[in-house]
Recover the amino acids of this structure.
């Protein structure tokens, strides 16, 4: 099979390649196999994973819609993976109580790609089920927008418990040089082929391309058009997420890209985004503050790239990899409550944080 | 054979690979190191899933913190969907939760189980509890019998106990196994089921137990 994707990754022991060892074609072939495996699987992870908790007091999740018309309830941006033409979608959903109506429907829409994954009423039941599909995407200015749309039947809500959107692994590797510069190997390293400068350049380009794939740390949306009112912003307490910091961050200038969806209904405000330490904004970490003008309505604010700090982390693991915090803290009504230090004086609807792998 | 890999990414210089030069072993070894790093570090899956909650409509519960009214006697179930990488045989989990402290009358716990989407139990699961201090809390009183709660991370740690993953009962926090006799989630998608007692869950982060060799 041309340009094969190995079933498993086989690590190449550098010791077998060092001076003094015989240069074996079999060993070099492993370099090509490793590159093809990475082409298929390196950094094709989760772009969106969001859940809504089932609450025993309310008897359902908050991501629920009863009204018998379609409406967008949640919306996320997904950063571009060069060459990807689709995204895989998994939905956990149910109809809250019976009976399941003919109009109960869930849609996941790729806005730019004009593609929809539909879960029709015939598939839904009153138990949580998992539905897997895909949407075709088109990247505009480096992003695709994914909308979750719900339709009830007018009396019983359809509710979503969780959504997962991932960059899919390809089933085959295309011939030729991709838009990101990588080329799948097709036997260049096997016996009796000369080691050429072209092959070495190909290997170099592939490695660089694999490090330039996006990794999403967190992706959050509020809810609109759902059964429960007042869900259209993050509630006023500190929201925290975690992010891996690699040991070569400083040397390679690896940065985080944060995009925050905000509104300023009460006038100009400040968005404060915490990005280090244990996600506590008390000062042990860093913070980006951005002035937000009055009159913004669901406006995506693009923060300056954030260089991750080398600070105490939630967890330290082998290889010097740290795991540290990100946070935003919408402030409570200042007319009623003291404003916590580090909180943001604007309405926050969503957060996307990602970095080049 | 286990091969060590590096946390940082590095390639051989382009000059080492010019056509006028002979290809030498160290250049190829550098490529092997780069590829091993890409597999060992950058092919791993890590992410944080945000868990949405019902908004508080009572003004007294909107004071910039999580109110005890949101956690007191509130039991929740959250389904979190995740992808697992080919080399992610174990995951460290971090839970962002709000709950009350030990001197309160309630006993908050959070239980986690890892399943396939078809319902097979891959890892029986772990329990975070106040009893063994594995469920962290940051509670700040502000008036009589009212508490402000800061969402706080609790970690499973990276200690692996594969034998406990398929046991009969949930255990104290440890790394979650993704490839057991109950099922395998390698290169697949799974369900992290979270059940709380008198606690609310705001987010779940997962990170592979990296190890030092491939």
């Amino acid at each position: 099979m041309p340009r094969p994707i190995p079933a498993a990754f086989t690590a190449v022991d550098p010791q077998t390649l060092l001076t003094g060892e015989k240069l074996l074609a079999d060993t070099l072939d492993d370099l090509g196999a490793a590159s093809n495996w990475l082409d298929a699987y390196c950094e094709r992870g989760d772009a969106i994973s969001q859940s809504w908790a089932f609450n025993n007091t309310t008897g359902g999740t908050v991501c629920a819609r009863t009204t018998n018309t379609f409406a967008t309830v949640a919306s996320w941006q997904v950063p571009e993976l060069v060459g990807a033409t689709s995204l895989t979608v998994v939905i956990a959903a149910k109809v809250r109580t019976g009976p399941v109506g003919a109009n109960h429907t869930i849609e996941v829409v790729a806005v730019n790609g004009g593609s929809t994954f539909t879960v029709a009423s015939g598939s839904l039941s009153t138990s949580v089920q998992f539905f897997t599909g895909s949407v075709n995407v088109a990247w505009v200015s480096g992003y695709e927008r994914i909308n979750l749309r719900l339709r009830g039947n007018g009396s019983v809500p359809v509710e979503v418990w969780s959504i997962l959107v991932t960059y899919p692994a390809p089933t085959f590797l295309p011939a030729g040089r991709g838009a990101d510069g990588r080329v799948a190997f097709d036997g260049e390293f096997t016996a009796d082929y000369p080691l050429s400068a072209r092959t070495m350049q190909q290997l170099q380009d592939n490695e660089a391309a694999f490090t330039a794939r996006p990794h999403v740390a967190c992706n959050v949306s509020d809810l609109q058009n759902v059964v429960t009112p007042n869900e259209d912003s993050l509630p006023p307490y500190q929201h925290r997420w975690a992010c891996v910091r690699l040991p070569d961050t400083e040397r390679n200038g690896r940065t985080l890209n944060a995009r925050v969806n905000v509104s300023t209904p009460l006038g100009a405000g400040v968005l404060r985004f915490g990005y280090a330490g244990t996600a506590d904004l008390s000062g042990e970490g860093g913070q980006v503050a951005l002035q937000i003008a009055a009159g913004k309505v669901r406006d995506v604010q693009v923060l300056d790239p954030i260089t991750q700090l080398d600070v105490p982390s939630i967890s330290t693991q082998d290889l010097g990899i740290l795991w540290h915090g990100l946070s935003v803290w919408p402030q409570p009504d200042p007319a009623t409550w003291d404003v916590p230090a580090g909180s943001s004086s604007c309405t926050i609807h969503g957060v996307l944080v990602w970095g080049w792998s | 054979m286990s091969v060590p890999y590096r946390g940082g990414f590095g390639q051989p210089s382009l000059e080492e690979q010019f056509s006028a030069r002979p290809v030498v072993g160290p250049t190829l070894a550098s490529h092997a190191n780069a590829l091993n790093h890409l597999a060992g570090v950058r092919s791993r899956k890590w992410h944080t899933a945000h868990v949405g909650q019902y908004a508080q409509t009572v003004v007294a519960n909107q004071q910039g913190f999580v109110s005890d009214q949101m956690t007191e006697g509130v039991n929740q179930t959250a389904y979190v969907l995740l992808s697992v990488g080919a080399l992610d045989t174990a995951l460290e989990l971090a839970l962002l939760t709000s709950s009350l402290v030990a001197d309160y009358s309630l006993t908050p716990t959070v239980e986690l189980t890892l399943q396939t989407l078809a319902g097979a139990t891959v890892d029986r699961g772990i329990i975070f509890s106040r009893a063994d201090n594995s469920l962290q809390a940051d509670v700040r009183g502000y008036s009589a019998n009212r508490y402000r709660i800061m969402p706080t991370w609790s970690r499973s740690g990276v200690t692996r106990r594969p034998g406990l993953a398929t046991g009969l009962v949930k255990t104290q926090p440890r790394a979650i196994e993704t490839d057991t006799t109950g099922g395998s989630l390698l290169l697949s998608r799974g369900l992290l089921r979270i059940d709380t007692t008198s606690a609310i869950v705001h987010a779940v982060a997962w990170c592979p137990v990296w190890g030092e060799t491939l």
